[in-house]
Amino acid sequence: MSSTIQAGSSALLRHKSFLLYLLSRSFSRFSSQIAAVAVGWQIYDLTGSAFALGMVGLVQFLPTLLLVFVAGHAADRYERKRVAQLCLLVEALTALYLAWGAYAGSLTVVQIFIAMAVLGTAGAFESPTIAALLPLIVPEGTLQRATAISSGAAQLATITGPALGGLAYAVAPSLPYGVMALFWLLGTILMGAIQPAKSDFVRDAATPADLFAGVRFVRNNPAILGTISLDLFAVLLGGATALLPIYARDILQTGPLGLGILRAAPAVGALLMTALLARYTIDRRVGMRMFQAVIVFGVATVVFAVSHWMWLSVLALAILGAADVVSVVIRFSLVQLATPDEMRGRVGAVNFLFINASNQLGQFESGVTAALFGAMPAAALGGLGTIAIALLWMKLFPALRDVQRLE
């Protein structure tokens, strides 16, 4: 049995388009994680404000809120790899702008916020497009394993990205932005070489109602609605990673490199878990497994919140990352498999809106709460709230709790 599973994973890695997809997505994730360290540290260094850290998340989320339905519609009506290429190119040019401003010493907080808004806009189009592309480039029946491998590859970039970003920033503030630009450009080139198995866009006339077809589809499918809303509220409350610059400098007494290690810790746990999921897929009680993973996520958040020791903080973040990737694999596979291909872009846009609301509004919420009550109480309350949400959702969405299999 294990040899068959291993052979399936190896066959996926020999699939040319899937390999190109992995590399392009990993380069993009690498750049995003470097940006999280460089921008977070620079903003906190310039302002010393937890509220300003929270604003980084808000300015990235607003373009998503305004454009996400247009983005999902674009992913269903235009060639997906071309849409993704354009997004990656815009991100590369934005990183070059930040690199030049940091090198010249003229970069201001307002300019950083504008750049992050541009990156948020590109991300609003990129994410649903990338998600809708994956089912078209992997063999039938392999989506869960492909999702785990893809997540693992991205997490590998996430492990090295924050550490390198912190080290690069310590050398020169402009260096991490230059690395970001290089990797986004490489991602652009690789994305263009992908060959989907079939047409991934429609040519018929569109109507205004088509923009919101994804919302109607999600609303009428309780399992999908429960899945993406669980992620929204759980991560919205449990966004302790937004406070890592405060923990690194003020609580754990470390520097930019320590911040990079803290940011990499969740990815280490996630990578170990994705290695297991790529080899042993979840084939029973998947709904309950997702709820259990969210509860573990909340517990790990509380442990991190109260820790004053670097080793315990890193361990808690690693467990947090491992639990999160279980939820991600189940959520992504469930949504993609339950959605017709011609709707995947628009449903993916709704999913991305919920994900970004949880991540970036969660960053804003954490910054505001930390400014009012302090970093440790804010993170601890968020973890407890995540646990409460998981328990409540088990009652509100029994159809999701009772899902047994994905494929």
Notes on the structure:
This protein has 407 residues and is mainly alpha-helical. It has 16 helices and no strands. The chain is globular, with a radius of gyration of 20 Å. The two termini are 17 Å apart. The model is unreliable at 1-7 (pLDDT under 50).
List keywords for this structure.
single chain, 407 residues, mainly alpha
Shape: globular
Rg, alpha carbons? 20 Å
Number of helices: 16
Order of helices and strands: HHHHHHHHHHHHHHHH
Task: Lay out the secondary structure.
Layout: H1 2-13, H2 16-47, H3 50-77, H4 80-104, H5 109-133, H6 143-171, H7 175-192, H8 213-219, H9 222-237, H10 244-251, H11 256-279, H12 286-306, H13 310-337, H14 344-373, H15 375-396, H16 398-401
Short characterization:
This protein has helices spanning 2-13, 16-47, 50-77, 80-104, 109-133, 143-171, 175-192, 213-219, 222-237, 244-251, 256-279, 286-306, 310-337, 344-373, 375-396, 398-401. The chain is mainly alpha-helical and 407 residues long.
